[in-house]
Amino acid sequence: MSWDQSADAWIASQGAHGDFARQYVLDTPMLARVRAFAPRRLLDLGCGEGRFCRRLAGDVEELTGLDPTTTLIARARALGGARFVEGRAERMPFADDSFDMVVSYLTLLDIGEIDAALDEVRRVLRPGGRVLIANLTGFATAANGTCGTWSSRPDGSRDMTVRRYLECRGEMVEWNGVSIENWHRPLSFYMQAFLSRGFTLTHFDEPACTDPAHPKAEAYDNAPYHLMMEWQAR
User: Fold this and answer.
1) Cβ neighbours of residue 81 under 8 Å, at least 6 residues apart?
2) What is the tens place of the pLDDT at every residue in 100-152?
3) How far is 68 from 117, CA to CA, in rounded Å?
4) Widest distance between CA atoms in the chain
5) Cα gap 25→209, rounded to integer Å
6) What is the model's pTM?
7) Which positions ≥6 away from 103 have C-beta within 8 Å?
8) Are the C-beta atoms of 66 and 85 separated by less than 8 Å?
9) Residues paired with residue 107 on neighbouring β-strands, in sequence order
10) CB 135 within 8 A of CB 227
11) String of b and e for 135-148 (b: at least 16 CB within 10 Å)?
12) How many angstroms separate the CA atoms of 200 and 194, rounded?
């Protein structure tokens, strides 16, 4: 399957507010970084059904969401909140220097042609602009698929086994009716990819759960599996 076949299941699984990681880990710090930089023109790369664009409505003057999945873009347009464009990260239909900020919210792991996509990010971003990224940690992606395993304990906690961490590879993952290819890449890959393109790291975080009373908060904070990076273009 692919995003085209999984789009309806994805929309159902996210609802209006997104899953645990989006609502209770990433939304608050991601919104804070956008508001601190205060871009006038922002691109949400891999916007899906447009949820994060709608969270940004009112904070950014010109919001654009880009996604290659027809069903997700149709849903985003129906709900509104931004200009939504169907297209691929590897070949963006935008002019050079079109945006002050590019946001990749848990989307880099979906892109196979990552070098082409990052070249395009650099092209459409104005000098001095920022790239804001939320991603799964490399250990989390390495534990998916054929090269890693998850196992559950009686108390509800889980153990992770990781193999071939340094090897970039695509793996099929499935949950809640969604079946897609995710790409594992070690953190060093992303660091070197941005540094080699002339970006400067301006922010790095492994955010905690924003609601300590949430039933999943303690388990998540014991072993966080999301990270954030912000890079500035020359």
Assistant:
1) 50, 53, 54, 56, 57, 63
2) 999 999 999 999 999 999 999 999 999 999 999 999 999 999 887 777 777 78
3) 13
4) 54
5) 5
6) 0.95
7) 30, 34, 42, 43, 44, 45, 52, 131, 132, 133
8) yes
9) none
10) yes
11) bbbbbbbbbbbebb
12) 8
Residues 6+ apart with CB under 8 A from 14: 22, 48, 49, 51
Spatial contact of 230 and 33, defined as CB atoms under 8 Å apart: yes
Residue-wise pLDDT for 66-96, tens only, equals 999 999 999 999 999 999 999 999 999 999 9
Take residue 132 and report the two structure tokens written for it.
Answer: 């804001």
CB 227 within 8 A of CB 137: yes
Question: How far is residue 105's CA from residue 119's CA, in Å, rounded to a whole number?
Answer: 18
Rounded to 5°, angle at Cα 93 from 92 and 97:
80
In this structure, what DSSP letter does residue 15 have? T
Specify the residue for token string 């169907």: 86
* C-beta of residue 84 within 8 angstroms of C-beta of residue 67: yes
Amino acid occupying residue 110:
D
